[in-house]
Amino acid sequence: PRASVEAYSSIARLAVALGSGSEAETAAERCEEGARRSGLWRHTVTALMTRAEVYLGNGQLDLAWPLVEEAAVITGDRSHLLPDAGLYERLQRQFYWATRGYAALKSLDRPVPTALFDSLVDALEVRLFDEAVALIAAEQIEGRAPALEEAVTTGLLGPLARLLAVGVHHPGVPQRLPGESAAQLIARVFPHPERTMVPRSIGLLATTDELSAAAR
Question: In three state form, how does the secondary structure of 126-164 look?
Answer without folding.
Answer: HHHHHHHHHHHHCCCCCCCCHHHHHHHHHCCCHHHHHHH
